[in-house]
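Task card 7
Instruction: Convert sequence to structure tokens.
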Amino acid sequence: MGRTNWKPFPHADTAYDYAGEKLKKNWSRLHRGDCEPYPDETWTAAISARHEGLAPKGGRAKAAAILQEAWRAYHRGDFAQAVELGLSIGPLGSAVAAKAANIYASYLEPDTKRQLALFEESAARCEDLTKIAPDWPNAFYFSAQALGRYSQGISVVTALTQGIGGRVLAALKKALALEPKHADAEIGLGVYNAEVISKVGSVVGKLTYGASREASVAHFEKALKLNPGSAIAHIEFANGLVMMFGKSKLEAATSLYRKAADCTPMDAMERLDVEAAKAELE
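Output:
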């Protein structure tokens, strides 16, 4: 899919520019949610040595530099460039390309058909990556992220009947098995349980899909424990409470939205989350 017509990030800020050593210095905070390793030459060499299919085009040093530039583009909100740079080095760049496309499609793509196509592309690319590098947590997580958003786009019930829900659940569980501190995967499992319960009810949800209100709340609470400054964790927890409990949890949900709106964004994605929380409160 062409990216020349992608909408620009509407909240450009020099604070989200991680040029030079700024990227490495801030990496831990920027990736507290997804636990992606810093893509220096050491990591690039190690993972491509383990998996022949990740051998980068142009050598490992060049690939590491391109990966870092792709992540810089992602963090400042240049999602199209992040995808282009990621794809330019082959499967090794699939993770950053998928995350950039997923976030762009979720927040900025106005056309539903193009949005769904982007999610399908990301999911397919990451599912291929899971076969090449089955020990890379975010190969599974970004696949689940794309499939989850795709499911919301076509309706959760339709996605469940097509078996997509099962693929999302399996990918999220695998990501957490590989990286137990993956806060974003915990959010994903919280959302999965909440959406299943809200669409099919607690009995069918439990018996057919293994979902429950208790599990949803536990996953959201774990996500916030791992990454307390995450706006999206607060937002999704709020949405999940309303989906599962209705008006009885409206006050708690509003409080979570306020906390999300008060979070300090470190990059473009976090800024989009914070702005979404503010819009919901208004």
